[in-house]
Every structure is written in structure tokens, then in C-alpha cells.
Automatic annotation (TrEMBL):
Family: Belongs to the shikimate dehydrogenase family.
Pathway this chain belongs to: Metabolic intermediate biosynthesis; chorismate biosynthesis; chorismate from D-erythrose 4-phosphate and phosphoenolpyruvate: step 4/7
Protein name, UniProt field: Shikimate dehydrogenase (NADP(+))
Classification lineage: Bacteria, Bacillati, Bacillota, Clostridia, Eubacteriales
Reaction catalysed by this enzyme: shikimate + NADP(+) = 3-dehydroshikimate + NADPH + H(+)
NCBIfam families: aroE, PRK00258.3-3
SUPFAM superfamilies: Aminoacid dehydrogenase-like, N-terminal domain, NAD(P)-binding Rossmann-fold domains
MF term (GO), any: shikimate 3-dehydrogenase (NADP+) activity
UniProtKB keywords: Amino-acid biosynthesis, Aromatic amino acid biosynthesis, NADP, Oxidoreductase
Quaternary structure annotation from Swiss-Prot or TrEMBL: Homodimer.
InterPro entries documented for this protein: Aminoacid_DH-like_N_sf (IPR046346), NAD(P)-bd_dom_sf (IPR036291), SDH_C (IPR041121), Shikimate_DH (IPR011342), Shikimate_DH-bd_N (IPR013708), Shikimate_DH_fam (IPR022893)
SDH C-terminal domain boundaries: 259-286
Amino acid sequence: MTDISITGHTRLTGLLGSPVAHSMSPLIHNEAFRALGLDYVYLCFDVGEETLPTAVCGLKAAGIRGFNLTMPNKNKIMELVDRLSPAAELIGAANTVVNDNGILTGFNTDGIGFMQSVRDAGHEITGDTMTLLGAGGAATAIAAQAALDGLKEIRIFARPTSRFHRRIQVLTDKINQTTDCRAFLYDNADQKALQNSLDTSTILVNATSVGMHPDTGESLITDPSYFHKGMIVSDIIYEPRKTRLLSLAEAAGCQTLNGLYMLLYQGAEAFRLFTGHDMPVSLIKQKYFQ
């Protein structure tokens, strides 16, 4: 692998979140830039919600071409952009921002990335039922895209005290009003409802940060009886690659997938928005996802 050559014309892209030191996004994007001969660079910036407004203002002034958002910034960024894509507006969160001559537009590529990762793993869940854990930006993106892609039913479990609860409630109503999918919202403390939901679900998705490095011993589900053989269990976390949730699910005979390919495919869409070029996905897979 050759070093990145920085010139006076190099366009800056990056990732804003906290923590971000573990992110694979710089590897993926910078390898794609090299492969296509594009004069871009992708960097990580450890920025939380409190400093996000200042960081966005500075990066905009510096002429950044675009940036991605990860936890905890996907909802806060909505207040800081000039325009929103239809998907970002529906979801209520953005994970990608493009700067066009000082005009910031927010997009959401998370849902696209998740659904493509499920298909890439060999699963077709159209017409099936999903149990979804979480109420933040990733959860809303996954729920919206899953509904648009033809799932029959989505059962969302979230804390009523979460600051995102009202947003996921609004999204649930929108799904029921505008798609053929039926969406239901439950308190994640209702373990009986969760167990009943899992009994008839094709796929369980953890869209929270529970189990993420460094708290790798945590899991929202610890009782092996909640899993049934053949169920797909997905965790959007990719560090560690096998969370405690996925380990428990595998032991119960479930098919599992982590967040690596969701990262890849949401990143591929962001790459296209930044550069106008398609990411060389096959090359990136071979180099970093084998």
C-alpha cells in the first residue's frame, strides 16, 4: 500500500463522533481514493454533541468536502445543516453531510447499508418480521429502510426515557401511514413482550451501542432462551466483531452478522455522494473484510 500524497488540491473528508479511534472508515475511504486515483483524504475527528456545532462551523469554513457522523452526533447534526435529503428528513437523523460551496446537505445512508449487508450475508427478509432494539439514529434509519424494502412487521424496543423516544414514535406512525409495513413500539423493560416478539421474528437487530468497545461484556439480552434456532441476529457494532449478544446467539444456533458490512455499504453510498464515483467495493472487501 502506497502512502497518501497530500497536495494543495487535496479534498478533505472525515468522520465526526466519539469515540472514533476504532473506526475502519479511514482505511476504507482512503484505500478507495488510492484505487481510483482521487485526490482526497479521510480523517477521524473525536467530536461529541457539545463540540459538534463548533467543529462543523470550522470544517465548513475550512472547505471540507463532506463528512460522516457516528454516535452520538447523528441527530444533533440535523440542527446544523442547510438542507436534508428526503430519507434524512423522514428518519430524523443524518450520517453523511456534503458541502457544496458552503451549503451543507444531510443524508442518511445507514438504512441502505444495513439492508444491503443482510442481503450480502445471503438473507432475504422481505415480508418477514423484525425485532429492533434502540431508538437512536441507526435504529430509525434501519426501521425506515426496512419498511420501504417490504418488511411485514417491525417491533421496536426502546427506553421511554430516551431523548430519542419521541422521534422513534413519530417514525413508527409515519411507517404505518405511508407503507404496507406495520410498526409497533414497546418499552424495552417489557421482557415478556420482547420474548414474545422474538418467538415470531425472523431477525433481531441490536441498533444500540450496548456491547461496544470498551464495554464488551454488556448485552441487552442475556437469557439464551430468548433465541430460537435459525433466527438471524444482527449487531450493528463491529468493534468487537463478535459482541456478547452475537456469542450468545451463535451458541443458541442462530445465524449472526456484525456491523462490518453495514459500515461498508453505508460508506460506499457516502463515498459516491462525496466524489461522484462508485466505491470499488470488491477491492475493499478483499482487503479488509476477509
